[in-house]
Structure formats: C-alpha cells, structure tokens
Amino acid sequence: MDGEPSCSLGTVVCVITGASRGLGRSLAWELCPRVMPGSALLLVARTEQALRVLAEELTLQYPEIRVRWVAADLGTEDGVRRAVQGAQELNGGDTAQRVLIINNAGSLGDIDKSFVDFTDPLEMDRYFSFNVSSALCLTSSLLKVFQGRPGLQRHVVNVSSLAAIQPFKSWTLYCAGKAAREMMFRVLAEEETDIRVLSYSPGPLDNDMQEEVRTKTKDPELRLQFANMKKSGKLIDCRVSARKMLDVLQADAYKSGDHVDFYD
Ligand SMILES: NC(=O)c1ccc[n+]([C@@H]2O[C@H](COP(=O)([O-])OP(=O)(O)OC[C@H]3O[C@@H](n4cnc5c(N)ncnc54)[C@H](OP(=O)(O)O)[C@@H]3O)[C@@H](O)[C@H]2O)c1
Predict the structure, then answer these.
(1) CA 211 / ligand 1 centre spacing (Å)
(2) What mean pLDDT is predicted for residues 86-115?
C-alpha cells in the first residue's frame, strides 16, 4: 500500500470515533495495512449504515482484522456508554502490542454567528458535551478497559486543529472546544507518562466539514479564504492526512502531549 511498511504497528486494538466519513473513515483504511493479523478495530459514529458498509468493506479486504462498529451519539451519556461497551466486547487488549484511541469525532458548531450572538448557555453545553466532555469521558473509560501492562504501548490521539492555537472570527465554539480538548490531553500526558499522547492537526481537508466552512462561516474574509483554497486545489485529501498522522505515530518522535500539524 503506497510503499508503507506492512504490519509495522504490530498487533493493535484501535477505537476510532467519527469513523463514518471524512478523516475518521480514511484513518480506518490507512490503519488496516499497518497492523498484524489478530488486530481489532472499533468504528464509532452516529450513522449506522455508513459504519456497517465501512466495516464490511474493510473485512472483505482485511479478513484477519476484527472490525466492529457502534452507532452512537457521543453527545449523550448513553452514546459514550455504548461506545465503551463496544470496546469491552472487542477484546484483544490482553494480547495486543498497542492500544490506539483516536478521538477524531468533532463538529464545527454554529459558525454562522459572532461571539456576541451566543446568549443561550444550553447551546454551549450541548456543543462542549460532545466536543470536549465526551472525548474526556470516553478516553478515560477506554484507558480503564485497556489497562497498562508490560509489553503494551498505549496511544491516545486527539484530532485537533489550527483553531486550537489560533483564533478565527465566527468560530467561537470550535476554537474554544479545540483549545480545551488540547489542554485536557496535555494534562493526560503529564499525568500518565507511560501513555503516548498526540494532538494532531490534520490541515484543511477536502471533505464535508470544509464544505460547511465555505458555505456557513459568518466572517466573509474567512469564507473567501477557504473558498479560494478549494478553488486552487490547496485542500488536503483525507487519506493523505490520515497517512501522515499514522507516520507520526509510528516514527514516535514527538513529545507526548504535543501539537503536531500536517504541515510540520
Ligand atoms: N475538515 C477539516 O478541514 C478539518 C481541519 C482541522 C481539523 N479537523 C478535525 O478533524 C476531525 C474529523 O473531521 P472531518 O473533517 O472528518 O469532519 P466530518 O467529515 O464532518 O466528520 C465528522 C465525523 O464525526 C462524527 N460525528 C459528528 N457528530 C457526532 C456525534 N454527536 N457522535 C458521534 N459521532 C459524531 C460524524 O459521523 P456521524 O455524522 O455519522 O455521527 C463523522 O464521522 C474533527 O475533529 C475536526 O474538527 C477537520
């Protein structure tokens, strides 16, 4: 596969959130050729049909990998609970060489508003519940499911954004959520020094989320900037960015907790 060393990540148990489309779907495809037979993969998102099709396609191409899915809304307590249950049922943690928890699911929130338009605390609660709280609760629960032991390397990935470290007009919730998530995972890196924590910023991707950015961003300059990127072919293919993320994990040359960008 594109010159990648085969099975180089060893026997892996992996959970990917937001796997139904976009970057998460590409991560699933890019991960499979890098893992050993006996590895297991759990796909989580809300759209059952997309997860089912992806799991079937992956199983057809990689029959030696156990692919399971859970359709769950991670913005709810029940959704997080069902994702954790799916991971418990996945098994494989006892024999795996690596556990990979990829917090990829995310949403833009209301990007057609300015800061001063946000007056409803419930709207913020809903946004942060999915984009921040669920990533914390899911990760901590999964780390309990996949306990550390000698010979096991645990990795936690936070799919981040330039918006975590740079403010963008109209993106109040998105910037705040990404910044909060990143700091949260930096604390994990400080506390659990045996866990490799990576905040990966995938760059501007050519996908559904970018279409929303181009069409809904309130600030006209920013909207135009992203429209121009699309027009001039500067958006990044999800599979290319997914590959870069896995290369970074595999090379293991980052400081745990660091923000690594596609362009680094
Ligand atoms: N696109 C970009 O240019 C860009 C740039 C920087 C960072 N990122 C980050 O990259 C990550 C992946 O985004 P993407 O670009 O691939 O976006 P996307 O195409 O919109 O995909 C988002 C994924 O999250 C899932 N999701 C959304 N709400 C959910 C919920 N309540 N519960 C469970 N799953 C949910 C979606 O599946 P369902 O709808 O089936 O639930 C989908 O699989 C995000 O964290 C995003 O912030 C993206």
Answers:
(1) 12
(2) 93
